[in-house]
Amino acid sequence: MGDFKNLLIFLIFLFFRLNNGQLTPLTPTNSITITPLNNFRFEQSPIISSLGECSSIYGQFLVVDNNANNNITNILIDKVSSGPFKKDGNHYLLTFWLSLNFTVSPLQMNITISSNSTSDVVFSFTQTCVDPDLDLLELEDPVTFFSEGFISKFKIKNYSNGAILLALKNGFGSYTALDNSTYFIVWDGGYLANITNLYDDWSFDILFYKKNKTFTIPSYYSLDKQLYTPTYNKTFYPNNIMDSGSNYTEFGQDYPPLLINNVKTNIPFPFSGVKYLTSFFMQRPLKGKIGNMTYVNILFTRIKDNSSDPLTFVYYDQYQNQISKTAFPTKINSKYNNNNNNNNNNNNNNNNNNNNNNNNNNNNNNNNNNNNNNNNNNNNNNNNNNNNNNNNNNINLYILLLLFLLLFLRTQLFSNTTSKSPIIELFTVSFKNIVNYKFTIYQYTYDKKDFLKTWPFGFIKGSNSEYTHKTSIQAITKRFGSFSTIDYSIQTFSQLDETTIVVPKNSISSLKTPIILSYRFYETYTGYYILSVDFTSENGLESAYNPPDKNVGLLHLVSGSIYNGTLEFIFQSNDKPTITLNDIFNNAFFLNEFDLFSINPLSQYTFPHQFYYKFNISNFYNISFSANNLNLEKDNYITVFLCNKDIPTDATFVFFNIEDSSYTAPQFISKITSKTFVYNSTLGCFTSRLIIQKNSVSFEVLEILYSSEISFFYSYMLPNSSRLFIKKSELDAQGPIFSFIKKINDKVDVSSNSVIVGWNFTISDEGNGFSHGYIKIMGSVDSSTYHYNFTIDDMREGDIFNGVYQFVINVSTPCVSQEYSITNVELYDTNNVLSIFELYRSTDSVSYYSNPFVNFYQSGIDITKVSFTCTPSILDTTDPILKLFTISKDSIDVGSNDRTIIFNFEIETDPTGTGLKIDQSPIVYILSKKMKILECRSTLLSNIGTNYNYKCQIELPVSFGYPYPISYSIYGIVNNGGNFNGFSTEDLKLNSLPYYSNTTFSTDIPVVMSNHVIYSDIGGDLFLQGRGFSNSKNVEITYSQVGLTSQNLVPTIIGNSIIKVTGIKPTAESILVKVETDNYFSNSYTVYPIFFNETIPEPPETPTPTPTPTQIPTASPLPTNPPQPCKDLCGGSDKGFCSPTGCICYSPWVGQTCSSQVIIVPPPKPDTGFPTTQFPNSIEPNSNNGSSDSGNTSEENENNRPITFKSLISIVSLREIDYKGEVVVEHKFEKWYFTPITELKNQYFTTINNNKTNVTATLEWFNKSTTIQFANENLEMNPSTIKYSIEISEYNFKQNLNNLQLIMFASFDASDSPKDICSSKQFGNTSTGDNSNYIKIQIDNHSLYGRFIKRAIIDDKVYSIENQLLDSSLNSISNSSSVQSYIGITIPFYKNYVVIDPDFSVLVDSSSASSSSTNSMCNSSSSGLSKSQLIGIIVGSACFAIAVVVGIVYVARKRHIQKIFVEKYSSRMKSK
Question: 375 pLDDT band (50/70/90 cuts)?
Fold first, then answer.
């Protein structure tokens, strides 16, 4: 919940925007104009609803004097605070601030402009702070969903431009989302836990100034009343946590006890949680499926002190509509956060004094009578004189550490002893411990820059009980500002071994800040942009960044120098880049949105225009997916579609999918990656791709979509048709855990023979299976460290679900008795879900839910420790000598591809000592002046006697350390007698050894650093990110997949930091790329395509008949078609046969007489605006080789031109009719949202009845003959058939006796038709046994055929429905070459939903339509006679024919004018 709090605070500032207003002149303007900037709004609301004022109103006015002879001398605005105006030529900028309360609102203010040659010019404006009328405020469209907690989204009617943050009495907080007056509220679990009845409405009070208003929202559980009651099976870790007098000891710092709760209910998120003090923790899904889900809950967080009284935390769970409560009696023993001062040295004080002669002794005596004199010289002969006087004075740890560090702090500015330049200035801190080192992590902070490091960094000498800590950093000697000091601090997040030191510095007088000269935006791949910035800096630039990425230094410098150059920043469309430039004296320049570069001409820093598109959440109602109701037994690869013609094609959207695993697995927060929608011009939609991992979601995939002018919204707010559901899944959000641990040789005695000590672990992960892990073990005396990276290949027995692994350490004499402890564990499953253990926290956060030792909370943390006793146990306090230390480069170009540096060093031990531990690797640390640190872990090359030779090499990151030198130190030298040693940067210098290297930075050498995502199945464009690309001329492409030949491709240069390579071949294996410019080759970079294999939608529940198909209950007698007469011998024995029900046709023949044949045509192009189908409209003569009984080929007219046939099928309206058949209300379908599902299947969505009823039409094309089942009926889909599946959700009938009637429209048209042509129309019952109606519209020898099934699925049952022809009542227009028809599908009263399923195809007929056909319409010359017979008739009847034609034209024209709808669909048909 803390994330929500931070987000709310952030949004206060993020969404504060000013809108348009006007100013009124009170005097003649005298050629002076004034313009408000940044969309200043003259009417505002308080930022927080409870405030009585509109605070922090900020405005800027641009004044322009168009009189060249005039000079403005002053600009004043009364009643407010304003800064001095800025001038540039005849342009002036006025800035003001205002806080306005309700008692003085509205406030009229005047702007007075004085000049040297004219009278004052006065403009007036009124600023209003709006106090809402609470009686007018209403809640609209509330939606409640669950995402880590309960969230409600709603609108407040009549609260336009209202408060950005609502002050809530009962809720946790809320904020503006998406569009104006839309809010979120995050419900406090503690409030919900006190509700008497969970099914009752949830209420909350919005606090306004001196008053408040109560609103109610339907309970999240209001729809779950019929779901079965949850049953719980609780398991506590440790299992005695509920016992009276129990005492819980933390298993690692801040790991709380857990409750694992198996819940059996079909409620997706049953209410359950724990309240501790003021915090409430909701349970989180861990594993299982809906109906049998296991949840996890923490019982408290971060107990800082031991508790003498039982904790006050209470567990709540749901039983039907009630909440039960269980109090806990537990006490807490927090062993990781209290101050343990049990060290063996009793506050020994250490003064380490080094100087260039190295011969001075510095004696310090403190009031505690502790005296330690430590003399260091160039021969490394250390004379230690420790006089330890024990006392029991309880000295505050902070004061003591500060005393130590102040006494023994030494800051030295060293002259360089070599020829290298520049001179680096070191600041060295040394102190001696007062508490035992317990494997904690230190944070080092200097000049507001920091890094985290554990042992051995800084540990210069000693053992865990008595050690000296010494570090050297590059000193900052000059800094702009009035402060004369800079803080340097060393601290931990657990034990209080910490302090803050004040470092003196020299102050620099005022200097110029860096200046941005110009900027440009370039769009790269969709949703990503380059911001190119030209700058100048008098002192030299030190860093340039886009917060929060503050530690990148000069990585973005792509050309020029630190004094004058160009920067490039890459960012996503959901980011709004604000740039910060710092020079070497910490002078800063900030670039924020709407900042002015110039007022003459007016130039502001604004983002690309795509960032300012404004959208409503309804723009996203039609998001859809290539597959839904997923089976997550395997990974799913989904294409996401966003189809809406109202969205500009260059708009950018980014969305994130959040899996249930993210609630409990900490790595998912960093693992969640954004996906960008890309506009597909072929589909007319935005598309993106989504990979849903197996077992990662239990019920529904949560998506959060971001755009520039909408903050974000959850997919839970969308209609069900736009949400991604899971049909089958076994959630596994728990990382691997230890199910069994056996120690190896614990408490063993080590004398002469070597012994192994360690553990056998059984790692269990019954869901996804274990993949890989990491374990770190450290010694209690010498901090010797062992790192184990392992995979399933290291398994000794078992499988990925339960496997045994062994981790052992070899111990041999000489040695020191000690204990080895497991300090860190990371275990990953095959889905990359992580369980993690840290003995002490490395950051200020902790993974409460994911401790792999959860099964051992009862037995305690001793299971992580093995000990041994050495006989004899030798403590070796001798110090080693660093005889040799060499570096391969004294100057490194960190902008080149040769950034590898090699270190060689030799260590000599005292002959009387125990020698070095050869399984311990000293580490060379590389530290930049900006407090960025790298580790180079060494390898032992040789060991001859007391000499040990080591080597390590490392490649530095691009720009590392620049423009300063980088310094070196060595730590982690461990001997066999329990002591460790190291050499600080200062020690290297004093020993005349190399201790730093200079850095340079080339900007013209190509370096490939990353790539934008490329998918394995499509290849195509590859975007490479890096630097030095401005002169790229070739990219070498080498494929690892056998059979794919290499390529040399010419890139498209988008900027210095991005190039596009077109023509990449599809491959699932790695690709090696190398960029060539005019003068250089880049590094070889490996691209790993993302594997993508589109998930094939699973078939519907009843795709084809089965021997025992699942039958849907029947609610009414179903109709059976009467027998039909067998005419024309059913086309002959080769076309069909006569059955008791009528003609049964052989494929491909269809129809009442089997004389029509299905035309095989390509799929029609989908209409993205309406659920309309137009079959391919040009049919070549004899395309189906069908014969005509008359011997005529009607596809050609008398001029032998092909006849063009056009067909149109569409859904017109939905109307409610009463028992008389009269229309009660009609809903016209004005706007549909289009979603492609597959290449042959598309979906359309709209709402009617004030958005209360959803209508979804799914259009599916069949390329081949297919048998489907609908409403318990087997239906044969012929090739080239389009099926309409129409689902209508709950409808609010005016009367229960009323029906709904869905109106469909079909038309068939022939252009370039001959004069002697006829059309006909038939509507009747089918004879093939499918008990349906059919409509056949025929022109010449082609037909549009539609089938309307007489049954529907209504409220999970099969009902009888009625289909009827409505041509007479709706005045369809038909003639010999164009036929229109309306069909009404009448649906009885229902409650929840209805599904109907008509289909259509185009036929070629054996016989052409003639005057003898049913309902025929012919030209006067078309009677079925021969042409010679017609001549006399035509001549004799010419006058009559003309009269008939004129009459038909008149009637058609009249009806055309009267029926706007027909005109609409006719024009649509002709335009396609």
Answer: very low
